[in-house]
Design goal:
By secondary structure, the protein is an alpha/beta fold. Helix 1 crosses helix 2. About 0% of the residues have low confidence. It has two domains: about 180 residues, 3-Layer(aba) Sandwich (Rossmann fold); about 60 residues, rRNA adenine dimethylase, C-terminal domain (Helicase, Ruva Protein, domain 3, Orthogonal Bundle), CATH 1.10.8.100. Helix content is about 30%, strand content about 20%.
Length: about 260
């Protein structure tokens, strides 16, 4: 068996029960699918059994991508792209109602999620089903006023809603990781009350305010808004810490920040 590459964060999912649980989270028959990091194709096999319309595999490891091309050479509705997912052009490859699967490399999982959150064509994907290190998963779903709440949960909640999640034991992988994993099923949020023009501005606002997580926001927030704009935010306590502000407050701050 080929050894996993630590540098690529490879842990191959081998538990068939977990694989079935992942692909059964939604109906994928006749849908366009993108799978991030298919590895040796364990999840890919189950996806193909569900008869998708078209399946695109994005695999950074050259040897694995060649193995996959050989393995699936007789399947016409499948394309294998040997590319770093962080350099992958989702805008170009996404088709309407695409479902994106991914057993994400632990070392870049939050970067991949942020990359997808930034997409301007978010209406083209219908579902995201991603595996994260459990600790990262907890930060994604962290509620305000808790220790897990932070930038990642604020960004995620603006663009996505969680419809399902479950934990996965380390024993379901080869090599066995030292941490538990979490599968999270997301769907795009419908445009709500807030109209943020550029998600990068929300990233900037949260980065500034969370740069001193244990301190009150009264100094850092003035790097974002002047006093006139601050007065427009109802019930904003400048003695609060970043974790004490609901996501909606961050969205309102970002809207005001974008108004010149």
């Amino acid at each position: 068996m080929r050894h996993a590459k630590k540098s690529l964060g490879q842990n191959f999912l081998i538990d068939l029960n977990i694989i079935r649980k992942i692909v059964n989270l939604l109906e994928i028959k006749n849908k366009n699918i993108i799978e991030i990091g298919p590895g040796k194709g364990a999840l890919t096999n189950s996806i193909l059994q569900k008869k998708p319309k078209f399946l695109t595999l994005v695999e950074k490891d050259y040897i694995l991508s060649q193995d996959l091309k050989l393995k699936y050479k007789n399947i016409n509705n499948l394309k294998i792209i040997n590319k770093d997912i962080l350099k992958f052009n989702f805008e170009k490859n996404l088709k309407n109602n695409t479902v994106i699967f991914g057993n994400l490399p632990y070392n870049i999982a939050s970067q991949i999620l942020t990359q997808i959150i930034r997409l301007k064509c978010s209406s083209k994907y219908s579902d995201l089903i991603f595996m994260f290190q459990k600790e990262v998963g907890e930060r994604i779903i962290g509620k305000f006023n808790t220790s897990k709440y932070g930038r990642l949960s604020i960004l995620t909640n603006f663009k996505l809603r969680i419809v399902n999640k479950f934990h996965v034991s380390p024993n379901c992988f080869i090599p066995v990781p030292k941490v538990d994993s979490t599968v999270i099923h997301f769907k795009p949020n419908k445009r709500g009350a807030f109209n943020i023009k550029k998600i990068e501005n929300l990233e900037k606002v949260t980065r500034i305010l969370f740069s001193n997580k244990r301190k009150m926001i009264n100094k850092n927030i003035r790097k974002v808004l002047n006093d006139k704009k601050l007065r427009l935010i109802k019930d904003l306590n400048l003695k609060s810490r970043p974790e004490n502000l609901k996501p909606e407050i961050y969205y309102e701050i970002t809207e005001l920040f974008e108004k010149v």
